[in-house]
């Protein structure tokens, strides 16, 4: 009986010892720190791994704080310099400063809300200086400026602002519709100007082609006439060399009449079915006389 009681007491002591030992040991995860308080007062900051604390409420873990980068998404409404209300989606990435964990825990009650308040205040003091177009163009610059201001304020509380991003700028729906209409009108005006320039190029090109055509036609006629005159001159010279007793006017009459008949033959060979000629018996002689007269005038 005594041995049983002794065994019971021993088991109880071992169990109590294990419970005490278990309450003294705790584990802190990677990228996490634990705030340890003794009798309600800050004692130390425990890092990752197995840690020891006094049992029976002497030491207690007040909080476990993440050291990883966190993100706080918020929506901020403000007004631009040209009186346009815009809604901006802002993403703030932040983390606790490992060298200043105690301030991060003891100085701020709700860090996410306080960071949001600083971001809103910085944006509402920066955006009203810009027009809507400038806001779209310089939103990255504004984000950097806001990040600088908020990082400076939050560093005193043990928080590091890693990055501030303005992910979206959304004007009022009526303003957005007006902007789209303006953009569409500008594009239509540019398209109309391009079409007008294209038509102008077509007209100028056609005019230049027509002028070149007329020039080449005139050159062709001049060369044809020159060739005819050269041919007549050669024919007259051949008749003179043949010692034919004809004066110069008779020779010219014969050659011009022959040229006229050749022209009629060429005209008929091209498929023309109707030729308008003088109806008098002296038609050929009249034509010859007219040609000679024209040559004498020249």
UniProtKB/TrEMBL annotation:
Pfam families: Band_7. This is SPFH domain-containing protein. InterPro entries: Band7/mec-2_domain, Band_7, Band_7/SPFH_dom_sf. Residues 23-183 form the Band domain. SMART domains: PHB (SM00244). It comes from Streptococcus ovuberis.
């Amino acid at each position: 009986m005594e041995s049983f009681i002794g065994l019971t007491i021993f088991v109880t002591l071992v169990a109590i010892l294990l419970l005490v030992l278990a309450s003294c040991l705790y584990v802190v995860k990677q990228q996490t720190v634990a705030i340890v308080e003794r009798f309600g007062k800050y004692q130390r900051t425990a890092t990752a791994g197995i840690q020891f604390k006094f049992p029976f409420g002497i030491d207690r873990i007040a909080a476990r704080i993440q050291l990883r980068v966190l993100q706080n998404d918020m929506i901020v409404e403000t007004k631009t310099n040209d009186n346009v209300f815009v809604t901006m989606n802002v993403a703030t990435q932040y983390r606790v400063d490992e060298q200043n964990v105690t301030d991060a825990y003891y100085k701020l009650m709700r860090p996410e809300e306080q960071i949001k308040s600083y971001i809103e205040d910085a944006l509402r003091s920066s955006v009203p200086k810009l027009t809507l177009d400038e806001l779209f163009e310089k939103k990255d610059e504004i984000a950097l400026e806001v990040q600088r201001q908020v990082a400076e304020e939050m560093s005193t509380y043990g928080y590091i602002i890693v990055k501030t991003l303005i992910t979206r700028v959304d004007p009022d729906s009526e303003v957005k519709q007006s902007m789209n209409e303006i953009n569409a009108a500008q594009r239509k005006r540019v398209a109309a100007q391009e079409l007008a320039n294209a038509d102008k190029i077509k007209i100028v090109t056609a005019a230049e082609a027509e002028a070149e055509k007329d020039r080449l036609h005139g050159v062709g006629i001049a060369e044809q006439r020159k060739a005819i005159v050269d041919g007549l001159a050669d024919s007259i010279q051949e008749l003179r060399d043949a010692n034919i007793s004809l004066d110069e006017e008779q020779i010219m009459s014969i050659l011009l009449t022959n040229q006229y008949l050749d022209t009629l033959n060429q005209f008929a060979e091209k498929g023309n079915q109707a030729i308008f000629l003088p109806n008098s018996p002296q038609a050929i002689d009249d034509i010859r006389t007219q040609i000679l007269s024209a040559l004498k005038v020249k």
